[in-house]
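Good morning,

Both structures are done.
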Amino acid sequence: MGCTRLLLLGLVLNVAHCREMLDNDTNLDISHNIIAILGEAIYLNCSYVGESQIERVELKRYITSKKAKRLAGFSNGKIFNNGNFSIQASSAYLRVLMNVTSVEVEGKYSCEFESGVDNFFSTLFITVIARPDVNVIVTGETVNGTHYQSVSCSATGGRPVPQISWLVSGLPPSDPPFTVNMTKTHHSDGTSTLRSILRFPTHLQDEDSVTCVVHHPALSNPEFTTARVETYTKPNVTIKAKMVQQEGNDFWVVFCISSGGSPATDISLALNTSEEPQRQTDTDRDMQRVSVQLPTTEYQGHNITCIFHHPKFTHKETRNIMLPTFYLSSAQSYSEPADNSEDFPIPELLALQEGDAGAVIGLKVTENVPRYNVICKKDDGVLPDGVELLGRNLTIQGPVEHHHAGLYECVFSYHHLKAKLKFNVTVKPPVVHYVPPTVQTELRTEYGRRVIECSAADAVPAANVSWLLPEGVSVDFWFNSTSHNGSHSVSEVLLLPACLPLEITAECVIKHPAFEKPESRSITLPLCAHPNITISSSTEWRGGRKYTKVHCSVDSAAPAADVTWYVGNSNNSIASLMESEAHDDGLVSARSSVHFLSSIYAGQNLMCMVKHSSLEAPETRTIAIPEHKPPLLSLSVVRQRHSPLWLAVCDCIGECVESKLAFLPESTKNPLSVNSEYGGNTLKVRLAYEFPLSSHEGQNLTCVYQFDHMVTEKRTVHIPRYYISSVRILNHTSPLRSHYSDGAVLYRLSLHKDSHVQKILLQIEGNVPEYNLSCQRSDGSFVQMDGAAIIFPSALTEQDKGLYICQASFYHHTATVSIQVEDTSEEQMFVLVAIMCLSSASAITLVLVIILCVCCKRNKRTYKQRESLAGLTALMQEPGSPQMKKPEGTEKDSEEYAHLVGYAIVIDVKSTV
């Protein structure tokens, strides 16, 4: 009884497994609410995503709630079209392109799918909207003297009715001064027109544009339309007056000015007189001017008024100006000597100094007239020679003399206005004045000598200058004297050696009548300054050897210093090169230098000894010569990116000779490149060697430097030995004997025919750090790679099937693999599943027969009974048993699972057969 229950359980599980593989859910993929724009086209998509076999698909439109009209469809491999539609269709997909020419397209539609067993149905609704056309018009009118503007914004042919709003300077218009009127019109085609009028007085609106904003569902964003409108600008008004001359007469020109205003300003002018002079109007861009020309004598003290009218003014604007009244009075004179800028009034008597040059008599008058005439005379006669009237001054050309004395009279006049000035000029005899000198002393150096100068300048009369020096001092001197405008300048100069053995003091004595006693100035000359000693060194490379050059510079007073060189503590001097240079300031620069091979005095001190007359004892400066260090070797081997050759680089840093640097083994026959680079105290020699990997793979490469005393320095690098053993396929494959090459193994690999983005995964066996992997078909065309994988982005085609050869390479190491790609379709899968089910049913029947036989022959040996049960257990472990049931997973994993099961079925069928 237990055996029968076991058989029934296996049969039920096998049937359930087969139903699970063949059954699927069904549904429709349809958009139920569609918005269509009048005048454009829309797509209606009906898609069946289930697994039933669809025989017929139709798109219908409902005329009534129960009655529908067939529009388009697909049946028995043919497309039917009951309208002017563009149709794309298959057994499970219908795509209709419909032109929306009127609002009658709006309504209810349905998609229907028919199969041999079931019918599938879904409805959709189309809503038709129309995009409006926006137009803006600006008009103007004048009502009762006030200018108004109206901006009309029309949204024509919209469905549903659009919405219109206004923006002025980015904000909704205020009421007042703006008013908005709306009118709506419906059309027979189901659309409508909305018109909005924005009206405002021009003088109360300061923005030069307004914006109409239209909102509508057919517009992705609100439509902004800006209209330019006329604006008024408040002008700046002013009044000005200026005086002009015409034919010797003076006139006032009064201007009434309006600038920056819009529209033009109405300007009038009030003179408050019975006469009306001629007026002139000028317009220049944004400026208006009304001017009138008035005689100065007739309009003295008159008040002139400009009156301005403009729409931006709440009331008329006025500007006033008062023309001045002229006067001429209060004349007086004053003296302006050429050497004195101070003014001092002298009403009646004016005294001048005899001999003064360029004397000026200023004439002052209190007035506000634009100009006046001046006539001067002396003693009721003409002005004497040398006296001229220049502007408002009487100027005496040359020195003042006795005939310049007398009574002078000057008359000032402007039309009927007059003023007189009388003054008496006297000439005083000359007076002798002592002018003390300006005393200065100066110490400087010229041409290697010290120069001391003592000067007494600008004195009347000339001063007496002399020098007092200590006994025993012998000097040279020279004397200089100049005169200018009656003053005298005297200087006496001492010439002394630049360097003196003793400190001396020189005293300059100045005598002059203006001094109560002689004045003196002293200058002390100090001892010579100690020399300035500096030592420096520099290095250079020649022929791979370093040379050192040491400089000792001494700046001192003449004569030049004596420089000697010593090494260490020895008394033996070394040869040097000496040069000197004299400067204009009396100093002398001495420069001594020594040049030697650096290794000769390496690690020792080099001393510079300086002797000079200003030094009590010689002074020394010491510099240390760096120790000699052996060169440093380094060796590196790198793979070059853009070359099939490897590169070995040997660097030698220090005192290196190019000819003593080499590579081992001596079989390195490729060309070697040598490069030397100097950097301060070091020399860097680089020896480069390019070689193919095969020539030194698994060997040691050595860089050797040979010293002069037969000692060598080495650096060694080992070149690894690489290999690529094989290219392995990570996908499930089965080996076959190749039909294309003798003895090579060909791997068969099956891919699903309708699956997308399938990959063949490869793995390189070996120790190479990197590799190049390329695959190509048997016809030589290359395939798409994704790293170490062959990728099939789309469904498998006939071109994708066939032989593929993949090669991995690293320099001269290579490995290849051959793959035969086959496909598996859904029909083949169905046949394999059917064969699996039949084979499973046959196996279960055979097991049932065996178990019945076993139950009938209970008297057989236990060994045979266990052997039968073992056979039963083995048959129950086949791929069609419940233990191999498809695991739960998502639809994303279904294709991979079908792929694995397909392989299992093939193996099972073969083993069963």
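Second structure follows.
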Amino acid sequence: MEVKLAGGSGQVFMARLLLLIFCMWVPVLGRVQNASVSSSSANVLNIGALFTANSFIGQAAKPAILAAVEDVNSDSTILEGRKLKVIFQDTNCSGFMGTVEALQLMEDNVVAVIGPQSSGIAHVMSHVMNEFHVPLLSFGATDPTLSALQYPYFLRTTQSDYYQMHAIADLVEFFEWREVIAIFVDDDYGRNGISVLGDALAAKRAKISYKAAFTPGATRNEINDLMVGVNLMESRVFVVHVNPESGLSIFSVAKVLGMMKNGYVWIATDWLATVLDSSDTVDPDRMNELQGVIALRQHIPDSDLKKSFTSRWDKLKNKGISSVNSYAFYAYDSVLLVAHALDVFFKEGGNISFSSDPNLHDTNGSKLHLSTLHAFDGGHQFLQTLIGMNITGLSGQLQFDSEKNRIHPAYEVLNIGGTGVRRIGYWSNYSDLSVVTPETLYKSPQKANSSNHLYSVIWPGEITAKPRGWVFPNNGKPLRIGVPNRVSFEEFVAKDKGPLGVRGYCIDVFEAAVSLLPYPVPHTYMLYGDGSRNPDYSDFVYQVVENKFDAAVGDITIVTNRTRIVDFTQPFMESGLVIVAPVKETKSSAWAFLKPFTVQMWAVTGVFFLFVGAVVWILEHRINSEFRGPPSQQLVTVFWFRENTVSTLGRLVLIIWLFVVLIINSSYTASLTSILTVQQLTSRIEGIDSLISSNEKIGVQDGSFAWNYLIEELNIPVSRLVHLRDKEKYAEVLKLGPKDGGVAAIVDELPYMQLFLAKTDCVFRIVGQEFTKSGWGFAFQRDSPLAVDLSTAILQLSENGELQRIHDKWLTNKECISQLNQVDENRLSLSSFWGLFLISGIACLVALTVFTFRALFQYRRYSPEEGKDEEDEIESPTRPSCLDFIDKKEAEIKEALKRKRQPIDSSDG
């Protein structure tokens, strides 16, 4: 259906050239017209119709256009008595003939042209329409690039493939596929549609892994060769974007090649639905070739107009006309749109007139007769009227957005099975995939989120389980697995003389994970590195990006800059950077008894001893004779109080304080025991901060990411770093130390250091804490589905204990248990006991508060009574001060208050 044509400025040149060629035929046509022709009072308005008559779309378009012209001419409310006349031209699938026939229509003074169905022909014809200001309304050209500003007179009454490709991208995302193969016809329609699909998939983190293009009119043998090639590739998801006339050949060849069975996925654009809808009867052989295919069909909302037209179409079928398809509705609506727009055009004072194009004129002696071609004077005004229309036709609401595309684009998602098709959902740019009709969701937006799914699909091979969407390429090439050729820590990965060629912990983990996959993974190991030094691991990972390897297996650390270029599996080994340094045993000192507590803890404990002593003295001073006496004796009592308290409040405070002291004493004893009995080691390097602040040499393993990390992240000068080749070099430089040509410490990943320390009988130690957190994983090319499946397999290995078994096989379990620089960590701080001190402090404050209120109450009762005469007041004893009153014994106060009440009691008697 589509024709391969040149693009860009070449199309303008072609249009000009064809214009000149056609004008050479004008004498044959033999007609000379005036420079200006007016048709404002004409009762007949000419419109052109250009399409390929003998095609699936053309056979449906012609009767639809005739029916639309008949309906318009029979409706007296439209055009006020004027009639439409349609002039048909057959492009015969030729861009050349389409352009020639478009120029012929310019002789007939048409006000609009309906068609063409081909995007390629539409590109060329649009240049002619631009020149003569005649709107071109296409019911079948779906190329998204036709909406460009380059084609101002092009108006699409069907849906743009821009939306169809986004619908396919949503399908790919819905079924969680990452790659597709695009099979398309190599013309404007095919190329531009697939280009949009690539952009839409990229937004979903998917991609087109291969573009399989074939020429328009390709033979079956050419299609067969193309399909044999794509069948050797990894992806099993095929998107077919071709012409209705040639598309069925794709599936016929695929059936012969065994590509319509279990594991394959086929998604066809709306061309397939057009073919199926246009058939009067079901062809069993054809349907057998399409089993399990998913296809899109432009959605036409149900309406009374649609039902009425379909009923009329059934009568037309008796005359040998093809069944109705969606393009018949769009062709009908194109005529309806022109009629209503002309009606508005006339009501707004528009005038139908044509004039010679000033750019085309006959030269002396020329036989071209260019003056016979006329431009539509009101073409621009009529175009704006068309763009602004909003009517309801057979295909639903017909209105255009700012890019001249129809609003509310929608597609039906079909699944072919048995002898028919089954609708499994819808897609629209409003709700994406849904099982609810788009027009329903427009009215009830709240249903959009709850309906974002599809009904079940029956895939090729009559299975309901979702296909994985990829396999290993069936071209005899196993997966190329890159392995670092290490010269140190060979327990993790190393060259081997066995069948695999490699061995080690990482290799066993990879083989165990692959064995859990539900499909075979043929692979071969390829060493990377010269074997004299460890390879640079960043360069190693980049070989995967460069397609030197399909994957990289080994002790590969997952770091940020690597995740940007490859996909990693789930980590199979935890890792992180640590510091290893020489250590020496620390000897106990005479002041070791102070180490269990921090300075802050000692200070707070001492303060509370004084505070609690003072509180108990206050509470016992008035009652307990042991808390009375000379000031020096009472001061000693505060520092040294015994348990023979008398007052209730004093006993409460003392019990709580003794509980606090008991816990502190027990903790102190345990900590001191640990400090004095466990061997303590110390190092000049205490952690990463002290290592950075020093100016001493630091050792780093060959090929490790730690080299760049120390330089770029911690700003350590390169001059301080030393490459280390193997474990023997590790021990050598640590023993020498920085003063004798060695290093102060080594920075490396934890798994290496654990193995190194175990092999050296724990002569060296890890100092400080692990200052980065990461892990080891296997690296794959971006969007490789193997990365996801192997991640699941690694989790299974971890859950069933196999990962630990492999670890125990290759790596020692010996640990260095002697403590290093842990005195400060074992010291007890206030943070561990502040709750106890808080309870004791609250108890003291509560006791003091109760004591104070009780003393004030007694003091008020002890003062002289109010209301006595002056003589009695002079004879009464003087009231003591508050401090003197509190210093008195409790018994004396009570006795005085008792004597004070006796006279009152006598007088009452």
